[in-house]
Amino acid sequence: MSLLQDTAEVLLEEQPVEKTLSIIELITSGGTAGIIIMILLFVLLIAAIYIYFERLFAIKAASKIDGNFMNQIKDHVSNGKIDSAQMLCAQQNSPVSRLINKGITRIGKPLEDINTAIENAGRLEVYSLEKNVSVLATISGVAPMIGFLGTVIGMILSIFEIANSGGQIDIKQLSDGLYTAMTTTVGGLIVGIVAYMAYNHLVVKTDKVIYQMEANSLEFLDHLNEPI
Fold first, then answer.
1. 115 CB-near residues (< 8 Å, 6+ apart)
2. pLDDT at 162
3. pLDDT tier at 50, thresholds 50, 70, 90
4. Membrane-spanning residues where (predicted)?
5. I need a labelling partner for 118 at 20 to 30 A (CA). Which of 23, 108, 133, 180 fits?
6. Mean pLDDT for the stretch of residues 34-48
């Protein structure tokens, strides 16, 4: 009976213990170089998220306009109530209303001059809408490269340990370099993917506002071109 108990105890002792690794341990296991790169990637991720939501709310606010706005503008212009039309534009305070207001201030001049003034104002509005969006594109390209930099550093550390092991490879020291290589690659790709998706979503939203600006500007110019 004692022999069976001893055998069972030995078998229990020989069973492999399942090891778990938390995200914090995974990051810190990569050594100093890995930690520095992961901190940099984390900063880029926070910057990308901030820019995304800041621009998203700004673009949503810019796209809001009263559905009856253009009808009211055309009525005011037709009745010669230029001041009332400008006051209505000021109340709306949107890219579309600012473009229309720019055109209203040029009423009485040739239609080509009015069109040019609206186009110039439109470029400024588009520039304002796209503020910092290019930073997201930069982050989406830079983050994976920073991750790959960590990969190269990790592999160099591993090769250095192998070269200086004298035939006795220390698996612990070798694993530090491999952790650096793998964790930074994954981190860089995640940040790059998030920034890329955020950038493309903002581009789509911005294009919708630009289309709205162009459609309302053309409607305004067509109204001015109608015979009295």
1. 221
2. 67
3. very high
4. 33-53, 133-157, 177-199
5. 133
6. 89
In this predicted structure, which of 13-22, 185-194, 214-223 has the lowest mean pLDDT?
A: 13-22
Give yes or no for a contact between 92 and 62, defined as CB atoms under 8 angstroms apart.
no
CA distances from 162 to 31, 35, 40, 174, 194 (A): 17, 22, 28, 7, 36
Domain boundaries, the chain: 30-225
Kindly report the backbone phi and psi dihedral angles of residue 226, in degrees, each rounded to the nearest multiple of 5, phi listed first. -70, 140
Chain mean position to CA 129: 14
The CA-CA-CA angle for residues 200, 122, 128, to 5°, reads: 50
**Residue 21 in this model has a pLDDT that exceeds 70:** no
pLDDT in tens, 92-132: 878 888 888 888 888 878 888 888 888 888 888 888 888 88
Rounded CA-CA distance 203/87 in Å is 31
Q: Tell me the C-alpha to C-alpha distance, in Å, between residue 43 and each of 23, 64, 151, 204.
A: 17, 32, 19, 25
8 Å CB contact between 157 and 33: yes
Number of residues written out for the chain: 228
The residue with tokens 């230029």 is 82
CB of 69 closer than 8 Å to CB of 96: yes
Q: Which of 68-72, 117-121, 158-162 has the lowest mean pLDDT?
A: 158-162
Max CA distance (Å), the chain = 113
Segments in the chain forming alpha helices (H): 2-14, 23-28, 31-63, 69-78, 82-92, 95-105, 111-129, 133-163, 171-225
